[in-house]
Design brief:
Pfam families: Retrotran_gag_2 (PF14223). With about 120 residues, the protein is an all-alpha fold. It is about 60% helix and about 0% strand. α3 packs antiparallel against α4.
């Protein structure tokens, strides 16, 4: 695609952000990428919101729910925000519905802490 066609394809509100000095398609794309790079802070916030709003709804098995939470924490770790496993274990327990109350009490009465894997693999 030529540089002129690319510039014409940009929506009007974004035309002010174009780089008129770009003389080649490659330079234009490099400058455009610098201007509109994704923001890791936004991605981190989005994943955190998803993690702390997760509730087990009984639609899938409990193992899948825990694995999904674990997957979100892995995404956060890749964004340089690492959550301790103890915190994740507590989040899993907190977001379980009342039908798991006896399980929560049982866990909290034990001296030992469980790892996330112990929740997943009984």
């Amino acid at each position: 695609m030529s540089l002129m066609i690319m510039k014409c394809a940009i929506l009007e509100p974004f035309k002010d952000t174009l780089f008129e000095e770009a003389t080649t398609t490659r330079i234009f794309l490099e400058e455009f990428e610098k201007k509109f790079t994704k923001n890791d802070k936004v991605k981190t916030s989005t994943i955190l919101i998803k993690l702390i709003s997760m509730k087990y709804k009984g639609k899938k098995n409990i193992r899948e729910y825990i694995l999904e939470m674990s997957h979100l924490t892995s995404k956060l770790k890749a964004l340089k925000l690492e959550l301790l496993e103890d915190l994740l274990v507590h989040l899993v327990l907190i977001f379980l519905p009342t039908q798991f109350s006896q399980f929560k009490v049982s866990y909290n009465c034990q001296k030992d802490k469980w790892s996330l894997n112990e929740f997943i693999w009984p």
